[in-house]
């Protein structure tokens, strides 16, 4: 499996915004050029493990938080992401999102069963 650098960059950017840091400030703290950090956030460059660890430490997140889209067994992080998405929803929005998730889950399982019969 290849790393999804665009997803990693998106998560770095989200964590940076949540930490209320500018790209310039985070780049300075991580001893990176602002251009390199911008390329990391857009996924146009590969990022080293050392840089990932530095960014995670500075941003107060785990490496899993930044890499979970590239990890096959990332259930705890995905559950946290779902909880974060629901965190600011009102009761009506939560009910609608639950219904959407339930319908999507049923469709996925129904289609998986159909795929097995056509193979």
How does the SSE layout of this entry go?
Elements: H1 5-18, H2 23-29, H3 34-42, H4 49-59, H5 63-67, H6 75-86, H7 91-118
Helix pairs in contact: 1-3, 2-3
Largest sheet data: none
User: Quick one: CATH superfamily of the largest domain?
Assistant: lambda repressor-like DNA-binding domains
Beta-strand percentage? under 5%
> What is the count of helical runs?
7
Can you identify the CATH class of the largest domain? Mainly Alpha
How many domains make up the 3D coordinates? Answer: 2
What oligomeric arrangement do these chains adopt? single chain
| Shape, principal axes of CA atoms | globular
Beta strand count? 0
Order of helices and strands: HHHHHHH
Determine the mean pLDDT. 88
CATH-derived topology of the largest domain: 434 Repressor (Amino-terminal Domain)
The CATH architecture category of the largest domain equals Orthogonal Bundle
- Low-confidence region ranges: none
Structural class: mainly alpha
Radius of gyration: 18 Å
Distance between the termini: 24 Å
Roughly what percent helix? over 70%
What are its keywords?
434 Repressor (Amino-terminal Domain), 119 residues, globular, mainly alpha
